[in-house]
Design brief:
The protein is mostly beta strands. It has three helices and 72 strands. α1 runs parallel beside α3.
Length: 812
């Protein structure tokens, strides 16, 4: 077949000279225009012998020496330019479309042939755009814009504003139609359709789409913007959202719907019980979507007022313990204790209780005296109060100054001083007789009878301690007798001087002590004490007196049956209660000796319970509150745990009311627990029951698996999402809601018509949030493309045959 074809072509061109470039390959013109077929030949000095123009198989005009012959069909529409062979054709019509041929025979050469194609087009007009739907919803609706126009061989171009619209996974362009699947707000336009052909172009009027979207970007703002608001002030909350049409707003407080609507919520003269999480919910009545803002915490505080300080002892003594309490009315955020302008820190001797409400000194020292400042503050204001701590101690280091020897008739003065707060009371004694009650003793005109030992007793009225010192004075004459007496007196005085009693201290068998237990207060080192007493604070416990070989012991009513002493004067107390805490003092009168110790009795912790205000919470919106309580226990400290990790304060976590209240602001899905509360004091500890929170979250982190499949196969589309409780799921294909619910969509024996965008919508009925994801499913025909090479070869042969036939006919 191919050989025969080429043979025919060779025969057809025999005797002809084809003038390359004699005519252009094609000429385009609009209907009604004038067309000039211009011959491109070099100038010649002699006229052409013959010129013939034809249209298809029809003759248009023949010019030769014998004259011109014009076809009647073209007579009034053509002009032949004999000198160049060019032809003018006027008022062209669509029927003039086709192939034009010129044959020129020069006077001195072979015949020249030129061929061109004339294409006549109808001008573009009446360009219009129509829209399939005027009420569209973002991510749900699809729309088709159709462009129509008058004219021929039309080409269509769509513009969105000044940008050309091109095909994509959401946009398809077919036969002048623009189809947008799952519209976006950016698809509003304005759209124009631009229609053109080789001879003209025209544009439509603009068309804009009305697309309802949102609400998105819901933002809650407060005015004024501060961390905490004083009770009684006014707060304005404003809500905004990106939405078309404009969103409707409603307000929530701690997740509960309020009766207020509108873009603003005004809280007038706000109260403490209005503290909490506020959020606004935006609703679009076209998209039927709800979106809730991030919650905003409104914290209402009372101004700090009526600050006061109180001590557990009005007359604190060195070696005892004391608690200084600081209280105020209002919302207390921070307590500080300061001395000399510096914040007081915990130490071995200084302990804080109840969020620094109580400053406790385990064992007071005289160096602890000073002015202590308690500062209580919140973000609204701060107040301070001072407390002057005077530690009472002594007397100690009693010393006497004065002469040791003086002549008769002279005056001498003895001075007594010691370390003591408050200042000690002094008593001068000689030979059992009180001489004076002041720090100084003066004797005028001394006589020999004034010789002897002078005792100064120093007594502290607060500590009830008495310490003495002695000083010997010798009054002398001028003869040997008195000198001898002087020496004898000093020997006698030396022999009569009492032995000093060493220091003794009290050592408890256990400290602190648990309520109900017993304790023994022993003296170290043991001492032989003939008479004395044990007291707690100012209250006597018992007294003893040794008479011969027997001890007479008297127990006071408050301690009958609970107090006893042994031969070493160690005190044993049984069935102790918290009220037995205090400073225990042993005071001996024979010899004179005093020692004391501070004893603490603590109640053991029991029945630690944990309760939650609301165990069902919404992520990023709700606040979780848990309360820890105990049935009994004293000096208790609390600690919180999430599983095995300790919970500490942060920007989201607040520990208040002495750590008994745990508040988690804007919970997240990892705040589920279990939470426990541990209580402890120096003698016991206990842990509460665990509490778990139910956190509702999602839907989010969606993923859709589709892929590419062949016709006739079975397809399972899987949609995954993070949500609690599990999200309710629906499927959409080409804007149509499918009957399938759940995370899987199963399609059996699929066809090419099932190709397209599939959307999975998830909704959480607790968080009232929704989310969606879209994917493209491609269905291919496994046999597509077979047989195409044969058809292409067949069409090529047809085209060659048509050309050969045309050339052969023109040579006949």
């Amino acid at each position: 077949m191919g050989f025969l074809t080429f043979c025919v072509v060779a025969v057809a061109f025999t005797g002809l000279v084809s003038g390359a470039g004699v005519l252009p390959d094609s000429v385009e013109a609009a209907e009604g225009d004038t067309v000039m077929f211009t011959i491109s030949l070099p100038p010649t000095q002699t006229p052409f012998t013959a010129i013939t123009w034809s249209f298809g198989t029809k003759s248009i005009i023949t010019s030769s020496a014998g004259g011109n012959y014009t076809s009647p069909e073209f007579g009034d529409r053509i002009t032949l330019f004999i000198s160049t062979g060019s032809l003018e054709l006027r008022n062209v019509a669509l029927t003039d479309t086709g192939e034009y041929r010129v044959n020129i025979i020069p006077a001195d050469g072979a015949a020249i042939t030129g061929i061109t194609t004339l294409n006549i087009y109808e001008r573009v007009s009446n360009v219009r755009v129509t829209v399939s739907s005027s009420d569209l919803v973002e991510f749900i609706s699809s729309v088709t814009l159709s462009c129509s126009a008058s004219g021929s061989s039309l080409s269509f171009l769509w513009l969105n504003g000044s940008d050309e619209v091109t095909a994509s996974d959401r946009v398809s362009l077919t036969d002048g139609n623009l189809t947008i699947s799952t519209v976006r707000r950016s698809d509003q336009g304005p759209f124009r359709c631009q229609v053109s052909n080789p001879v003209s172009n025209s544009s439509s009027e603009t068309a804009e789409l009305s697309i309802s979207y949102g609400p998105d970007d819901v933002i809650l703002e407060t005015s004024p913007q501060i961390d905490d608001y004083e009770e009684g002030s006014d707060v304005l909350l404003s809500c905004s959202a990106d939405s078309r049409p404009a969103a409707h707003f409603q307000w929530l407080f701690n997740g509960e719907l309020l009766s207020f609507t509108g873009a603003q919520l005004e809280l007038v003269k706000i109260q403490m019980n209005q503290s909490g999480n506020y959020s606004c919910q935006a609703f679009n009545n076209k998209t039927l979507r709800y979106t809730t803002s991030e919650p905003g915490l409104i914290s209402v505080l009372k101004r700090i007022m009526n600050i006061s300080v109180e001590s557990s002892s009005n007359e604190p003594m060195e070696g005892s313990s004391v608690n200084i309490s600081c209280d105020a009315s209002g919302s207390i955020s921070i307590r500080k204790w300061l001395i000399n302008g510096q914040e007081l820190k915990p130490s071995e001797n200084i302990v804080f209780y109840e969020q620094k409400r109580v400053l406790s000194f385990k064992v007071l020292n005289r160096t602890d005296s000073g002015t202590y400042v308690c500062e209580i503050s919140n973000s609204i204001n701060s107040e301070t109060v001072s407390y002057s701590l005077h530690v009472n101690y002594g007397p100690e280091n009693v010393q006497i100054s004065g002469p040791k020897e003086i002549q008769e008739d002279k005056t001498f003065k003895l001075s007594c001083f010691c370390d003591s707060v408050p200042t000690a009371n002094y008593t001068w004694i000689k030979n059992g007789t009180i001489l004076a009650q002041s720090s100084e003793y003066t004797k005028e005109s001394a006589a020999s009878s004034d010789s002897g030992q002078y005792i100064c007793k120093a007594t502290n009225e607060i500590t009830k301690k008495t310490v003495q010192a002695s000083h010997t004075v010798l009054v002398t004459g001028i003869d040997f007798f008195f000198n001898h007496i002087k020496k004898s007196f000093f020997i006698l005085a030396h022999l009569m001087k009492p032995e000093a009693c060493g220091a003794v201290e009290v050592k408890p068998s256990v400290n602190p002590v648990t309520v109900g237990q017993s304790v023994t207060l022993s003296l170290s080192p043991p001492a032989s004490l003939n008479s004395g007493s044990w007291a707690v604070g100012e209250a006597l416990i018992l007294t003893w007196t040794r008479l011969g070989d027997q001890d007479q012991v008297a127990v006071y009513p408050n301690h009958l049956g609970r107090a006893s002493i042994d031969a070493n004067r160690a005190l044993t107390l049984s069935s102790l209660s918290v009220n037995d805490s205090g400073v225990y003092t042993m005071k001996s009168t024979d010899p004179e000796l005093t020692a004391s110790v501070s004893l603490i009795v603590l109640e053991p912790i029991s029945n630690v319970t944990l309760s939650a205000s609301d165990s069902a919470l919404i992520e990023h919106t709700s606040a979780a509150v848990a309360l820890c309580s105990i049935s009994s226990g004293s000096s208790v400290s609390l600690a919180w745990f999430n599983s095995s990790s300790e919970v500490t304060a942060s920007d989201r976590v607040r520990l208040t009311e002495g750590n008994s209240t745990l508040t988690i602001v804007k919970v997240n899905r990892y705040d589920r627990g279990p939470f426990t509360c541990s209580a402890f004091n120096p003698v016991s500890n206990a842990t509460s029951n665990p509490v778990n929170f139910t956190i509702y979250y999602g839907p989010d982190n969606m993923n859709l698996t589709l892929g590419s499949h062949t016709v006739g196969s079975n397809v399972t589309a899987v949609c995954s999402v993070e949500s609690h409780p599990p999200a309710q799921m629906q499927w959409v294909f080409k804007e149509q809601l499918l009957n399938t619910t759940g995370s899987e969509l199963e399609l059996y024996h699929v066809t090419e018509g099932q190709s397209g965008s599939y959307s999975c919508f998830a909704f959480n009925n607790e968080t009232n949030l929704s989310h969606n994801v879209t994917g493209y499913l491609e269905i291919k025909d496994a046999k597509s493309g077979s047989g195409q090479p044969d058809r292409a070869l067949w069409f090529l042969c047809l085209k060659i045959w048509a050309v050969v036939t045309s050339l052969t006919f023109s040579n006949i």
